[in-house]
């Protein structure tokens, strides 16, 4: 009983600003709202490369993926289709921002400008080239990078495919080495940004698949809702692809911060009561992990509060 009580307590609202949330109301999204409150009330104001943030160090959030549940946060509208398009771009190992722009995804535009690339010493890259970022390291780890249009098939280490092959093997799926790293010190200065979500690990118990992510730096206002949704999508997808059951996503964060221009909006968000998480259906099982498309995914019953408009800090 004590274990159950402690488990429930981590999801409980403790928000002193809210008057409409019952003290007995439990929801996994309160972990996120409580983290925002910790940053707002206890965070340290620090100046970094792109302005001031309020920050705390070290957090862990647990989200169930059972019964097809997916934690797309509800206290503001999360652009889950944009998030999923970016994930499928990662999975293919692509590095061209034009591929995202063609799908009306513009989340990388601020890091793709000539001015920003010049600040990173990457003025020689063509306009759409973002360098060897997340997906590149997932699929072609440490392969010499030419540009976003080159063919890297068979080059570097295909970390994601190696993990998939282990998960499909009943004798290997229980390994503790099912790790994919986006952090490559050898190429850290060849991408427009060093990776923020740097390493994820899969774990299987009784045919149930869990994923844990370590993120060194987390923009909790704009980035974290995407990170939670993205890796939950990934876990559901890998489970489907490898004939496993999705179980849990765990998000470990090093530096958790809110940028100064977003502080007032987050004070508004933490007053909102979470709604039930939606569910996900993956309609097709493809032979190759590269072949999944947006229409393979169906989200049911996503109910949310109004959008909170914020500008991304590049």
Could you characterize the architecture of this molecule?
- With 314 residues, the chain is α+β, with helices and mostly antiparallel strands.
- It has a single domain (33-300), classed as Thymidylate synthase/dCMP hydroxymethylase domain (Thymidylate Synthase, Chain A, 2-Layer Sandwich), CATH 3.30.572.10.
- The chain has nine helices and eight strands.
- The protein has helices spanning 2-9, 29-42, 80-91, 97-101, 114-119, 134-140, 159-168, 223-241, 263-269; strands spanning 44-48, 51-64, 179-181, 197-205, 208-219, 245-259, 279-282, 297-300.
- The protein has a six-stranded mixed β-sheet with strand order 1-2-6-5-4-3.
- Strand 1 and strand 2 (51-64) form a beta hairpin.
- Helix 2 (29-42) packs across helix 9.
- The longest helix has 19 residues, at 223-241.
- It is globular.
- The protein starts with a helix and ends in a 14-residue tail after the last strand.
- Mean pLDDT is 93; it is low at 1-6 and 17-24.
Secondary structure: elements and pairs:
Layout: H1 2-9, H2 29-42, E1 44-48, E2 51-64, H3 80-91, H4 97-101, H5 114-119, H6 134-140, H7 159-168, E3 179-181, E4 197-205, E5 208-219, H8 223-241, E6 245-259, H9 263-269, E7 279-282, E8 297-300
Parallel strand pairs: 5-6
Antiparallel strand pairs: 1-2, 2-6, 3-4, 4-5, 7-8
Helix pairs in contact: 2-9, 3-6, 3-8
